[in-house]
Request: fold
Amino acid sequence: MATPALDSDLDAWRLPAEWEPHQATWIGWPHDLPARAGRSAPMRQVCAEVVKTVADGEQVRILVSSKEQEAKARRLLRTLGADSERVAFHRWPTDRGWTRHIGPICVLRGQTHAETAVARFRFNAWARHPDYRKDDQIAERAARALALKLRRVVHGGRPVVLEGGAVEVDGRGTLLATEECLLDPFVQVRNPGFRREDYQQVFLDAFGARHTIWLGKGIAGDEAHGHVDKLCRFVRPGTIVLCSEPNGDDVNHRPLAENRERLQEARLADGSKPEIVALPMPAPIVVDGQRLAASYAGFYVADAAVLVPTFDDPNDRLALGTLGELFNGRPVVPVRALDLLRGPGSPHGLTQQQPKA
Reply:
């Protein structure tokens, strides 16, 4: 049963939906890493194209690790014709720089949205990698640079670990998450001992989310172990897209079918049933024997456009058409995402919106 609506509270904080107006978009400029083995340059080309599209409608704040990297990024953006007046750089070193996951997650206060704050979660590289301390400092650096309030998220006396890709909100009190990512007690555990009710209290306090819809497993190949933004997204109030795999022999078929069953039984915070729209999956993409988490759900909703990953797959056209109908009035722009996928990432993983106060 959905949680009843709360009385209006001028002191409450809210995480807006991604399609609500932005003050800016934050993007981490891909830098060289041993694990990327020569893939950084193609990733930077895709990143520059994303920056150019996003800058058509809003400010873009780019994280770079050095003066030299900033100079190279400026040259590439100038070559593409990006609006330099809408691009700002921050020389802050990162470990991997996937901005969706390292912040800043900005929340707005009250019904008038007169105040913006950064919800300060801790980041531990998806409980997977030992090097994450540079990434973990980005949220605080952003709050200082923008003179924003820093709201440290603590539960049970402990700082809470959470990545932006682990949650999806409609801005109206409903949040999506997966049990695989946040409730698995053995694999990539972000907050040992946390149960469903612990997270639901965190979501209420930090995001104003009164109701959580828990899905089961994520898609195959996801290094983050079940991020919801790779399989299920809100596209407008009351409407959710969910990836679908009709091939019964594919490893994603059963988990996605089970997630659909859960959504069909779910209710939103206001008690209504969501409209569920199927989003196709591309054919499996395998690199060096490893299946990658290719998904059209990794789109990003900027003010000027919706950036949708494509994979040179026949289903690219179907995914673009489906999202084009749902985001009527906002152009859908394809992003050739194979190089980002090998990163591993997506347009959504590359970006983090800063809502407009």
